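Escalation from tier 1.

The customer reports that the assembly of two entities below gives different structure tokens on two consecutive runs. Tier 1 could not reproduce it. I'm attaching the input and our single run for tier 2 to review.
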Amino acid sequence: MKFISPRELRELGVLGMNSRNVNYIGRRNPRKLFPLVDNKLKTKRLAQEHGMNVPELYGVVKIQHEIQDLEAILEGLERFVIKPAQGSGGKGILVISERSGHEFTKSSGAVLNLRDVKRHTSNILSGLYSLGGRPDVAMIEDMIIFDPILSHFSYEGVPDIRVIVYRGFPVMAMIRCATHASDGKANLHQGAVGVGLDIETGHSICAVQKNVKITKHPDTGYGFEDMKLPHWEQLLTLACGCYEMTGLGYFGADIVLDKHRGPMILELNARPGLAIQIANQAGLAKRLKSIDKMKSIAMPVEERVALSRQLFGQQPSMF
Amino acid sequence: MSSKIQIIVVAGILIAIGLGLTLYKRFELGFPLLPGERQDVWTVESKVTFNPTGGPVEISMALPEPRAGWVLLDENFASSGFGFSIAEGADGSRQAKWTRQTLDRPATLYYKLQTYRSDEFGLGASPVPDIVLPELTDDRRAAMNRVVEKLRERSSGPISFTALLLEQLVDEKMDQDTSFLFAGHESGHLGVIMDVLAFAGIPAQRVKGVFLEGGRRRQQISTLVEVFDDGRWHLFNPHNAQMGLPVNFFVWERGERFILDVIGGNSSQLEFALVKNTLPVKTVLSMEQQAGGKLMLDFSIYSLPVEQQGMFKGLLLVPVGALVVVLLRVLVGIRTSGTFMPILIALGFIQTTLLAGLIIFLMVVGAGLWIRSYLSHLNLLLVARITAVVIMVILLMAALSIVSYKLGFNQALTVTYLPTIILSWTIERMSILWEEEGPHEVLIQGGGSLFAAILAYLLMTVELIEHLTFNFPELMISLLGVVLLLGKYTGYRLSELYRFRYLRKDWQ
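Tier 1 run:
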């Protein structure tokens, strides 16, 4: 078991949990804005008001009594996702990719009947998947058909792109690819692969699974070294637009690439994790400080994106 | 930046105040910083309650004398609105007198003393009272005659006579005559015992006092019986027929006088609240010498009523446990389930002792998790499910207590000190964690919580820390300063040095 010295971490500009909480979340994210992002329904409505690209919302189930209306909401839907508005870490998300009558097929292949779907919804409402067990609401929305370019890099789940946005500037990005070990969830600590992405080009820098560097996807076998995300500029612009939308100074935007509709905002996170630094083999603190050193940050989204790509781009590939 | 400087200044002032007060107490008031030689010091708070019947009220209470090695350290009286005096009798006995012209509602009077037993002497000599023959009806006299006759036949003298009589009562193997004598005198067994002894011509008297048992709030006066034989007094405990002065019996009054005498009131009651402080005698002695005039002492924890002192003793340890959790989370980066759950568990461990507490905790949580996994199949609403878990935990605790008690492990009876609701929430959270993240995460968070709890427990039971928190509560102000500083710590956690180990340059 090896350790890294604090000095080396400081030299790399790695952001630690305490510093993140005190210097960035505590200072840049006013408490009253948290509900906007902790509740995905609020985020979605806000994003729709601002004309942001989000997966279509089919319906919302707010109280147990309304579960009987679920059948009507699902009428005619071939694919859909049911998820808790205040879930965390991808908990409680039910993805139905195929349907024939009252038989619902999960993306993993398991078949459910309507009663199972209703029970899942009931569990969501009673707060089973929500922070602190608070009562929650269930959202039914469109299933994302992800861009085929990414299909080599994900197993049984939607890969999502996390962009850390600091005061409106994109500072670091990675794509999280589900694996068999992560049970189709794009959660790094459950075993999903995190691939650091160059801010300028959207090209892969380094891939890690459970903190260990890898070169190819453990389930699909495709190498990550040639991965390059399409619509990169559009994606960064979408992420940074959320700064004006929410007012949060430090957040992570989770974005998916839909085959037909391009980059879409899935959710925002006011307390983004630090593992992105391992996937990028680079420290966040350094980049955050260089933003703080700027004389003026008042500029349109496009200029901010361009400036960031210039500042933080051209990372050497680690493959 | 300014908030950081502010915090440093505020924290610095707080730490300085705490340390300054501590040093003042150490050097000006002579409180020892180290625990040193220890002595069980008992604080006995007697509480007199009564309802006034109108008219002048006069309450007199016999005060204890130092007897049988007990040393009285300190006495306090509390009685707002009453005239108060202490009357000294010719034989050196003292009586506290509270008087008041009118009183229209129930009143409570307090008398508090601190005492410890320096030597285990016996009670010593005391004048032998005259034997007063009881007045009896004819049938009782006849029964009494036969009882005394029988006991005399079987005993060799007054001592074995008394022992035999008491054994009969304790074992409840009474013959007809004895049953007849004692029947209808459930509350007054003692009176009948005294009658029998008087009838048999044995000089006897009562010895009233308090059994000192830690943490008791409503202890009553207990009475022992003393018989005179062969030029000496011999003491018996009528509740278990054992001879001799019990070690923890604090003698209040010897002889037939009443302890409490209330004129102008009824329903009077005398109760005792007891707290044991294992303190350095020096501390209490220096308190003794210094008391009065010194502000710091008047405002110390010792000036509180005994019941609250006992509560504070536990309460003052909580910040120490909290500090452990803060350090582990902020500096080390250990994950615990719930921020302060470990402290509550640690407080529970103090009551149950570590090993027993751990075993009980693991058994209840383990069994709870197992049953809870069944509940999750039933698809219940959250509130109902949690309630089910709470009920389950209480049942488990009861079952554990009963089974282990039958098996002869008394330790498991302390299970009630573990906080039920915390156990239930632990089970609920662990169960969800298990389903969502797998057993690995349960092990990490559960293990982290237990580790923090054990560490907090070990620290909270260190003699020095108990001594410091109770005698120098102002150290808490310093602790507050330290915690404020920790709240602004933005350096790396120990766990992060491991987490980011692959960022090392030499690692490929």
